[in-house]
Recover the amino acids of this structure.
């Protein structure tokens, strides 16, 4: 084990997905080396990491992304544009009101 504090299984569980996704740097106060050191001595956590990796690989190969029907995509785009225009109009009218106060 490297120098530094040992980490508990609860910390591994909390940041397991980030570690498996290669984002250990996003785990506050924990280094990738601390994860590795813990996994070397804790079979339960190692099994969890291996299980999550297998699950993610399986999901990536078995679940093909589905494309939404054209009419649904068009409806979403239309609603987004209308909302953006409405919000812009509202924002402009509120900023005029704020300036007058």
């Amino acid at each position: 084990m490297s120098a530094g504090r040992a980490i508990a299984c609860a910390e591994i569980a909390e940041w397991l997905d980030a570690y498996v996704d290669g984002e250990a740097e996003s785990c506050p106060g924990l280094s990738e080396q601390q994860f590795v050191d813990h996994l070397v001595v804790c079979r339960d956590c190692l099994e969890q990491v291996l299980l999550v990796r297998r699950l993610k690989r399986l999901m990536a190969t078995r679940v093909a992304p589905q494309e939404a029907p054209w009419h649904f995509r068009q409806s979403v785009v239309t609603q987004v544009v209308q909302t953006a225009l409405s919000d812009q109009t509202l924002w402009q009218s509120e900023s005029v009101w704020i300036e007058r106060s």
